[in-house]
Amino acid sequence: MSSAPGINEAVAVYYDTTIDLYERLWGEHVHHGFWDPGESPAADGADRHAAADRLVRELVDFAGVPRDAHVLDVGCGIGGPAIALARDYGATVEGVTLSEAQAGRAAERAAEHGVGERTRFRTVDFLVSAYPDASFDAVWAMESVMHIADRPAFFAEAFRVLKPGGVLAVASWCVRDGELTAAQEDLHQQVLRHQVMPPLQSIEAHERMAADAGFAQVRGTDWTAAVANSWDPTFAQVAMQGGRQFIRELARDRGVEVLGFFYAGPVMLEAFATGAMTYGAIRAIRPAQA
């Protein structure tokens, strides 16, 4: 039960080469923000960093992640959610990522925030991480499941490592349920190329995979409208000097993989606007044993 090696290597290279760019743009959280309906992040709504903090809180509340939990953070990025879980909810967190650069930076940042003793970060494929059965109170996966080719295996492994009564909390990029139009499928394919992902699936498909893995109390919700502002063109761009010349130099120095970072914004904005892509949260419980 392992991920596709080609995808894993490509994801690791992508995040290793863009780690500083993401931190400059997204801050400590390498994921979307969450806004109330009608809010504009540039005017009456939270800025990106506050909105990204809120997304963590929304997933904690939606999934019912308990305080003082032992949490496995799958796809931990540079440690933003893990630090928040440890600092604000008393959690002890194990973070795993395919990117060695991310794991190192996450450990640095956790120490800076005073939660180094309650967090640990490893460079490992979650599907072959070999954690013992029933090890965790919660499995947390914020915008990482979309990089996993064998998603049924993800849900099966999450079920295995959770204690009876443990909670699964997922937030992921998705596509709408049903067949996409030709134009929507073209946008979908552009997202996959730029963001190094296998084909995306619907929120409903994620719910079915969780149920098939044995989870109970499975529930999904659509947060597309709440997160779409993350790609606002006046809000989601990196302040860079040098323009196109700078981007060309980055591609020459780091490889063409880095270009996906710059192309993603307009594509994501259009994909959300046309309904091709959605953003979902899924919560599920490993049933308690009799």
Automatic annotation (TrEMBL):
It holds the Pfam family Methyltransf_11. The keyword Transferase applies. The keyword Lyase does not apply. InterPro entries: Erg6_SMT_methyltransf, MeTfrase_dom, Methyltransf_11, PiNMT-like, SAM-dependent_MTases_sf. Keywords: Methyltransferase, S-adenosyl-L-methionine, Transferase. Residues 134-142 are annotated as: SAM motif II. GO terms for biological process: methylation. Gene3D superfamilies: Vaccinia Virus protein VP39. Belongs to the class I-like SAM-binding methyltransferase superfamily. gTMT family. PANTHER family: GERANYL DIPHOSPHATE 2-C-METHYLTRANSFERASE, ZGC:194242. This is Methyltransferase domain-containing protein. It comes from Luedemannella flava.
